[in-house]
Amino acid sequence: MNPKKDLLGTEELTTQEIYQYLDLADNFLEVLARPIPIVPSLRGKTILTLFFESSTRTQISFSIAAKRLSADVVNFSQATSSVKKGETLLDTARNIEAMKVDGVVVRHSAPGAAKFLSERLEAFVVNAGDGTHEHPTQALLDLMTMRRHFGRIKKLNVLIVGDIAHSRVARSNIFGLKTLGARVAICAPPTLIPVEIDDLGVEVFYNLDEIIHDFDVIMALRIQLERQQAGLFPSVREYRTFYGLTKERAGRMKAKGVIMHPGPTNRGIEIDPDVADSDKSVILEQVKNGVALRMAVLFIHAGGKIE
């Protein structure tokens, strides 16, 4: 199957395309377990990580993934870039094109920024988060984690709890989960549910205690105070009281149910420390799977070869 040039979101992916990423990522997990976890698949390729928003985990994950494939990696930081001097995204795109890099991993605060670049670059573009729109590789690594834990995605019952309105992770997960046949529901205060929720085709709940026992996967989201207007909920303390994943709530989940979080976690707000570190938590598995999944994405879009 010939891949699309770019990975801009999960909404545009078919079932076959999603499974192509997941199957290859499973193979790369085996590579990462070797004493020398490096393959020469992308030797001679140059990958640019272009992060206009601050990031630690995602940028490091992509950088490690590229290096494990033997690609050269150039990391961009807005704090020390010409963007601070007034350079536009279009200027940046033209400069990237002149440098002849093979692939660009971009994070930007504006929805559609990755698509904007993809239409102007010969290099492939991977969206590492564009505003509140999408974050496809996070969703794909979440799907990978679920499949490795349960052996399937179809008919899984998945509940996403928290700041849905401002979460690109929630949107990308909803699109991917529904494409693969999962039951998807959300639970949040009314003010943190997006106005277009009916278009997403998910069940909507407001009382976590009434439904927590019914789901195989509960994904907690970070409260994104930096993207919110004031007054969307009375206080962080009240949010934790009604929507936080406490030890007591986790104890009422299905026996084989798991807890996920895309990170970074606000311990003591959306998830308590003893829950994040419990046997039900697969948060560290998500991080490990993220490197393998991003290796798969870079391999596919850079035209990698198995040697």
UniProtKB/TrEMBL annotation:
InterPro entries in the record: Asp/Orn_carbamoyltranf_P-bd, Asp/Orn_carbamoylTrfase, Asp/Orn_carbamoylTrfase_sf, Asp_carbamoyltransf, Asp_carbamoyltransf_Asp/Orn-bd
CC per GO annotation: cytosol
Domain called Aspartate/ornithine carbamoyltransferase Asp/Orn-binding: residue spans: 155-299
PROSITE patterns recorded: CARBAMOYLTRANSFERASE (PS00097)
Recorded metabolic or biological pathway in which this protein acts: Pyrimidine metabolism; UMP biosynthesis via de novo pathway; (S)-dihydroorotate from bicarbonate: step 2/3
Occurrences of domain Aspartate/ornithine carbamoyltransferase carbamoyl-P binding (ranges): 5-147
Keywords for the protein's UniProt record, in alphabetical order: Pyrimidine biosynthesis, Transferase
Superkingdom in the source lineage: Bacteria
EC number: 2.1.3.2
GO biological processes: 'de novo' pyrimidine nucleobase biosynthetic process; 'de novo' UMP biosynthetic process; amino acid metabolic process
One Pfam assignment: OTCace
Positions with a binding annotation for carbamoyl phosphate: 57-58, 107, 135, 138, 263-264
Catalytic activity: carbamoyl phosphate + L-aspartate = N-carbamoyl-L-aspartate + phosphate + H(+)
Enzyme class: transferase
GO molecular function term, any single one: amino acid binding
Residues engaged in binding L-aspartate: 85, 168, 222
Similarity annotation: Belongs to the aspartate/ornithine carbamoyltransferase superfamily. ATCase family.
Functional description taken from the UniProt entry: Catalyzes the condensation of carbamoyl phosphate and aspartate to form carbamoyl aspartate and inorganic phosphate, the committed step in the de novo pyrimidine nucleotide biosynthesis pathway.
The protein's assembly and partners: Heterododecamer (2C3:3R2) of six catalytic PyrB chains organized as two trimers (C3), and six regulatory PyrI chains organized as three dimers (R2).
Name of this chain's protein: Aspartate carbamoyltransferase
Species per Swiss-Prot/TrEMBL record: candidate division WOR_3 bacterium SM23_42
